[in-house]
Amino acid sequence: xxxxxxxxxxxxxxxxxxxxxxxxxxxxxxxxxxxxxxxxxxxxxxxxxxxxxxxxxxxxxxxxxxxxxxxxxxxxxxxxxxxxxxxxxxxxxxxxxxxxxxxxxxxxxxxxxxxxxxxxxxxxxxxxxxxxxxxxxxxxxxxxxxxxxxxxxxxxxxxxxxxxxxxxxxxxxxxxxxxxxxxxxxxxxxxxxxxxxxxxxxxxxxxxxxxxxxxxxxxxxxxxxxxxxxxxxxxxxxxxxxxxxxxxxxxxxxxxxxx
Length: 259
Description:
37% of the residues lie in helices and 23% in strands. The protein is an alpha/beta fold.
Protein backbone atom coordinates (compact mmCIF):
# COMPACT_ATOMS: atom_id res chain seq x y z
CA UNK A 1 0.00 0.00 0.00
CA UNK A 2 1.06 3.57 -0.69
CA UNK A 3 0.62 5.63 2.49
CA UNK A 4 0.58 9.42 2.64
CA UNK A 5 2.25 10.08 5.99
CA UNK A 6 1.24 13.10 8.11
CA UNK A 7 3.16 16.26 7.30
CA UNK A 8 1.98 18.65 10.04
CA UNK A 9 1.41 16.42 13.08
CA UNK A 10 3.11 18.13 15.99
CA UNK A 11 2.83 21.48 14.22
CA UNK A 12 -0.82 22.12 13.43
CA UNK A 13 -2.20 19.51 15.85
CA UNK A 14 -0.84 17.19 18.56
CA UNK A 15 1.32 14.28 17.43
CA UNK A 16 0.50 12.26 20.54
CA UNK A 17 -2.61 10.13 19.82
CA UNK A 18 -4.11 10.48 23.30
CA UNK A 19 -3.64 14.24 23.37
CA UNK A 20 -4.99 14.56 19.84
CA UNK A 21 -8.12 12.52 20.53
CA UNK A 22 -8.74 14.36 23.80
CA UNK A 23 -8.41 17.77 22.11
CA UNK A 24 -10.92 16.89 19.42
CA UNK A 25 -13.36 15.39 21.90
CA UNK A 26 -13.20 18.65 23.87
CA UNK A 27 -13.90 20.73 20.75
CA UNK A 28 -16.87 18.51 19.95
CA UNK A 29 -18.30 18.52 23.46
CA UNK A 30 -18.02 22.31 23.67
CA UNK A 31 -19.97 22.76 20.39
CA UNK A 32 -23.72 22.98 19.99
CA UNK A 33 -25.35 19.76 18.80
CA UNK A 34 -27.79 19.69 15.92
CA UNK A 35 -29.18 17.55 13.11
CA UNK A 36 -26.75 15.84 10.73
CA UNK A 37 -25.50 17.69 7.67
CA UNK A 38 -24.87 16.50 4.12
CA UNK A 39 -21.89 18.85 3.89
CA UNK A 40 -19.90 21.06 6.24
CA UNK A 41 -17.43 23.90 5.82
CA UNK A 42 -14.70 24.17 8.45
CA UNK A 43 -11.31 25.89 8.89
CA UNK A 44 -7.85 24.36 8.67
CA UNK A 45 -5.47 26.39 10.85
CA UNK A 46 -3.59 25.07 13.85
CA UNK A 47 -6.01 23.54 16.31
CA UNK A 48 -5.18 26.06 19.02
CA UNK A 49 -6.58 28.75 16.73
CA UNK A 50 -9.32 27.08 14.67
CA UNK A 51 -10.04 23.82 16.49
CA UNK A 52 -13.06 25.18 18.40
CA UNK A 53 -14.63 26.48 15.18
CA UNK A 54 -13.98 23.20 13.38
CA UNK A 55 -15.60 21.48 16.35
CA UNK A 56 -18.78 23.45 15.64
CA UNK A 57 -18.94 21.89 12.18
CA UNK A 58 -18.04 18.36 13.23
CA UNK A 59 -20.67 18.40 15.97
CA UNK A 60 -23.10 18.28 13.04
CA UNK A 61 -21.24 15.29 11.63
CA UNK A 62 -21.41 13.21 14.80
CA UNK A 63 -25.09 12.21 14.39
CA UNK A 64 -24.20 10.51 11.09
CA UNK A 65 -21.68 8.14 12.67
CA UNK A 66 -22.43 4.62 11.47
CA UNK A 67 -24.29 5.92 8.42
CA UNK A 68 -21.58 7.90 6.65
CA UNK A 69 -19.00 5.57 5.13
CA UNK A 70 -17.27 7.92 2.65
CA UNK A 71 -16.03 11.49 3.06
CA UNK A 72 -15.10 13.73 0.14
CA UNK A 73 -12.67 16.37 1.39
CA UNK A 74 -11.84 19.46 -0.69
CA UNK A 75 -9.40 22.18 0.26
CA UNK A 76 -7.04 24.68 -1.33
CA UNK A 77 -3.72 23.61 -2.80
CA UNK A 78 -1.63 26.23 -1.02
CA UNK A 79 1.72 25.26 -2.50
CA UNK A 80 0.72 24.04 -5.96
CA UNK A 81 -1.80 26.47 -7.47
CA UNK A 82 -1.20 24.91 -10.89
CA UNK A 83 -2.47 21.53 -9.72
CA UNK A 84 -6.03 21.85 -11.04
CA UNK A 85 -8.04 19.44 -8.91
CA UNK A 86 -5.48 17.04 -7.52
CA UNK A 87 -5.93 13.57 -6.07
CA UNK A 88 -3.24 11.51 -4.41
CA UNK A 89 -1.98 8.16 -5.65
CA UNK A 90 -1.88 6.97 -2.03
CA UNK A 91 -4.09 4.10 -0.90
CA UNK A 92 -4.43 5.58 2.58
CA UNK A 93 -3.71 8.77 4.52
CA UNK A 94 -2.12 8.32 7.95
CA UNK A 95 -2.56 10.40 11.10
CA UNK A 96 -1.42 9.75 14.68
CA UNK A 97 -4.81 8.04 15.15
CA UNK A 98 -4.25 5.50 12.38
CA UNK A 99 -4.93 5.23 8.66
CA UNK A 100 -7.92 6.28 6.57
CA UNK A 101 -8.33 4.35 3.34
CA UNK A 102 -8.73 6.33 0.12
CA UNK A 103 -11.77 5.74 -2.08
CA UNK A 104 -9.66 4.66 -5.02
CA UNK A 105 -12.68 3.66 -7.11
CA UNK A 106 -14.20 7.16 -6.98
CA UNK A 107 -10.76 8.73 -7.41
CA UNK A 108 -9.97 6.69 -10.51
CA UNK A 109 -13.39 7.41 -12.01
CA UNK A 110 -12.77 11.15 -11.66
CA UNK A 111 -9.33 10.77 -13.23
CA UNK A 112 -10.75 8.74 -16.12
CA UNK A 113 -13.38 11.47 -16.66
CA UNK A 114 -10.64 14.08 -16.97
CA UNK A 115 -11.92 16.05 -13.98
CA UNK A 116 -9.09 15.24 -11.58
CA UNK A 117 -5.37 14.53 -11.98
CA UNK A 118 -3.00 12.55 -9.80
CA UNK A 119 -0.61 15.09 -8.28
CA UNK A 120 1.19 13.74 -5.24
CA UNK A 121 3.18 16.97 -4.95
CA UNK A 122 -0.07 18.82 -4.19
CA UNK A 123 -0.64 16.56 -1.19
CA UNK A 124 2.88 16.04 0.15
CA UNK A 125 2.97 19.08 2.46
CA UNK A 126 -0.64 20.28 2.24
CA UNK A 127 -2.23 20.99 5.62
CA UNK A 128 -5.70 22.08 4.48
CA UNK A 129 -6.82 18.47 4.09
CA UNK A 130 -4.66 16.75 6.69
CA UNK A 131 -5.92 18.71 9.70
CA UNK A 132 -9.46 17.45 9.06
CA UNK A 133 -8.56 13.77 9.06
CA UNK A 134 -8.30 13.38 12.87
CA UNK A 135 -11.67 15.15 13.24
CA UNK A 136 -13.15 12.59 10.84
CA UNK A 137 -11.58 9.69 12.71
CA UNK A 138 -12.94 10.84 16.06
CA UNK A 139 -16.40 11.85 14.84
CA UNK A 140 -17.07 9.11 12.26
CA UNK A 141 -14.63 6.30 12.95
CA UNK A 142 -13.39 4.08 10.13
CA UNK A 143 -14.53 5.75 6.91
CA UNK A 144 -12.95 5.97 3.47
CA UNK A 145 -11.87 9.39 2.24
CA UNK A 146 -11.38 11.13 -1.08
CA UNK A 147 -8.99 14.06 -0.45
CA UNK A 148 -8.89 16.59 -3.30
CA UNK A 149 -6.56 19.60 -3.34
CA UNK A 150 -8.00 22.40 -5.47
CA UNK A 151 -5.76 24.77 -7.41
CA UNK A 152 -6.66 27.37 -10.00
CA UNK A 153 -9.69 25.92 -11.75
CA UNK A 154 -13.19 27.24 -12.29
CA UNK A 155 -15.75 26.99 -9.52
CA UNK A 156 -18.05 25.27 -12.02
CA UNK A 157 -15.45 22.51 -12.49
CA UNK A 158 -15.30 22.01 -8.74
CA UNK A 159 -19.10 21.92 -8.65
CA UNK A 160 -19.11 19.26 -11.35
CA UNK A 161 -16.74 17.11 -9.31
CA UNK A 162 -18.90 17.57 -6.20
CA UNK A 163 -21.95 16.49 -8.22
CA UNK A 164 -20.12 13.37 -9.42
CA UNK A 165 -19.33 12.23 -5.88
CA UNK A 166 -22.51 13.49 -4.20
CA UNK A 167 -23.84 10.03 -3.41
CA UNK A 168 -26.54 9.47 -0.82
CA UNK A 169 -26.66 9.54 2.96
CA UNK A 170 -23.50 7.42 3.04
CA UNK A 171 -21.43 10.32 1.67
CA UNK A 172 -20.34 13.43 3.55
CA UNK A 173 -18.72 16.38 1.81
CA UNK A 174 -16.27 18.59 3.71
CA UNK A 175 -14.86 21.85 2.38
CA UNK A 176 -11.80 23.17 4.14
CA UNK A 177 -11.25 26.92 4.17
CA UNK A 178 -10.21 29.79 6.37
CA UNK A 179 -11.71 33.23 5.76
CA UNK A 180 -9.97 36.63 5.76
CA UNK A 181 -6.25 36.83 6.41
CA UNK A 182 -4.07 39.29 8.34
CA UNK A 183 -6.41 42.18 9.06
CA UNK A 184 -6.98 43.56 12.52
CA UNK A 185 -9.72 41.84 14.47
CA UNK A 186 -12.40 44.49 13.89
CA UNK A 187 -11.80 44.65 10.14
CA UNK A 188 -11.66 40.86 9.82
CA UNK A 189 -14.88 40.43 11.77
CA UNK A 190 -16.73 42.77 9.42
CA UNK A 191 -15.28 41.18 6.29
CA UNK A 192 -16.08 37.69 7.53
CA UNK A 193 -19.61 38.71 8.47
CA UNK A 194 -20.22 39.74 4.85
CA UNK A 195 -18.66 36.52 3.61
CA UNK A 196 -20.86 34.47 5.92
CA UNK A 197 -23.96 36.30 4.69
CA UNK A 198 -23.05 35.42 1.09
CA UNK A 199 -22.45 31.78 1.99
CA UNK A 200 -25.72 31.45 3.90
CA UNK A 201 -27.54 33.10 0.99
CA UNK A 202 -26.03 30.55 -1.38
CA UNK A 203 -24.39 33.28 -3.44
CA UNK A 204 -20.94 32.17 -4.57
CA UNK A 205 -20.88 35.12 -6.95
CA UNK A 206 -20.64 37.46 -3.96
CA UNK A 207 -17.42 35.88 -2.73
CA UNK A 208 -14.14 37.50 -3.70
CA UNK A 209 -10.61 36.23 -4.07
CA UNK A 210 -9.47 37.39 -0.63
CA UNK A 211 -12.59 36.38 1.28
CA UNK A 212 -11.50 32.76 1.73
CA UNK A 213 -8.32 30.85 0.93
CA UNK A 214 -10.50 27.91 -0.08
CA UNK A 215 -12.61 30.13 -2.30
CA UNK A 216 -12.95 27.71 -5.23
CA UNK A 217 -13.90 24.63 -3.17
CA UNK A 218 -16.40 26.79 -1.29
CA UNK A 219 -17.92 28.24 -4.46
CA UNK A 220 -18.07 24.81 -6.07
CA UNK A 221 -19.88 23.36 -3.07
CA UNK A 222 -22.41 26.21 -3.08
CA UNK A 223 -23.11 25.66 -6.80
CA UNK A 224 -23.71 21.96 -6.22
CA UNK A 225 -25.78 22.62 -3.09
CA UNK A 226 -28.15 24.84 -5.03
CA UNK A 227 -28.69 22.09 -7.61
CA UNK A 228 -29.43 19.62 -4.82
CA UNK A 229 -31.72 21.99 -2.94
CA UNK A 230 -29.67 22.36 0.22
CA UNK A 231 -29.75 25.32 2.57
CA UNK A 232 -26.77 26.71 4.46
CA UNK A 233 -26.61 27.40 8.19
CA UNK A 234 -23.93 29.47 9.90
CA UNK A 235 -22.65 27.59 12.95
CA UNK A 236 -19.69 29.63 14.13
CA UNK A 237 -17.79 32.76 13.09
CA UNK A 238 -14.66 33.85 14.95
CA UNK A 239 -11.11 35.02 14.39
CA UNK A 240 -7.81 33.85 15.83
CA UNK A 241 -8.09 36.76 18.28
CA UNK A 242 -11.17 35.06 19.75
CA UNK A 243 -9.26 31.85 20.40
CA UNK A 244 -5.53 32.10 20.92
CA UNK A 245 -4.00 35.04 19.04
CA UNK A 246 -3.55 38.78 19.29
CA UNK A 247 -5.97 41.31 17.72
CA UNK A 248 -3.63 43.08 15.31
CA UNK A 249 -3.13 40.49 12.58
CA UNK A 250 -5.75 37.76 12.59
CA UNK A 251 -7.20 34.99 10.45
CA UNK A 252 -10.95 34.51 10.20
CA UNK A 253 -12.71 31.18 10.64
CA UNK A 254 -16.25 30.09 9.85
CA UNK A 255 -18.20 26.86 10.24
CA UNK A 256 -21.27 26.10 8.14
CA UNK A 257 -23.63 23.15 7.76
CA UNK A 258 -25.52 22.30 4.58
CA UNK A 259 -28.64 20.17 4.78
